[in-house]
Specification:
By secondary structure, this protein is α+β, with helices and mostly antiparallel strands. The chain contains 4 helices and 9 strands.
């Protein structure tokens, strides 16, 4: 049995948190500096536009990224002899190898592995926050139990071509 532990990106938590965080920062600055004109005056006092942008980015984005890292769930993926167990703090999902019809790497999102069932329904997805190499290790372990045909393609993300791979079960 092989086990992988990592922090997983979770858009359901991340996007609302980002919106609330940025609104709170804006409202806090609005009241602290006395409105939009007060914020503009405070920025003019700092001097250089590049230095101002760097300081504002550091003051706003650094705490945001740290809080976002803490907020994301820690996921444990266990690959057993006949099943995959994906668990976080609250949930546990068991997928038997015979239920897996296809694997999609980088198709729906960058560094995301979708595990699909017979009707192309998503049984689970795995998207590590900082260790994308885990995905190839997980695919290799699943491939030891299920025979796949491999189809490669490309997809553009932010102007860069990223290799996509679809593994379909052989019958």
């Amino acid at each position: 049995m092989k086990t992988f532990e990592f922090k997983q990106n979770d858009l359901k938590r991340g996007i609302p948190f980002a919106i609330v965080y940025l609104v709170l920062v804006f409202v806090g600055c609005y009241f602290y500096f006395g409105g939009l004109l007060g914020m503009a005056d405070a920025l003019n006092i700092l001097g250089s536009a590049k230095a101002t942008g760097f300081l504002i980015g550091l003051a706003v984005l650094a705490p945001f990224l740290i809080l976002l890292t803490v907020l994301m769930p820690k996921v444990k993926v266990e690959l057993g002899p006949d099943k995959i167990t994906i668990s976080d703090k609250n949930n546990q999902k068991v997928i038997f190898y015979n239920e897996i019809y296809a694997l999609q790497l980088n198709v729906s999102n960058l560094n995301k592995l979708d595990i699909l069932g017979e009707q192309n329904n998503v049984l689970a997805h795995i998207q590590p926050q900082s260790k994308p190499e885990i995905l190839t290790q997980i695919i290799n372990e699943i491939s030891n139990h299920v025979m796949f045909t491999k189809l490669k393609g490309t997809k553009k993300y932010f102007g860069n071509s990223i290799e996509t791979t679809i593994y379909t079960k052989k019958f």
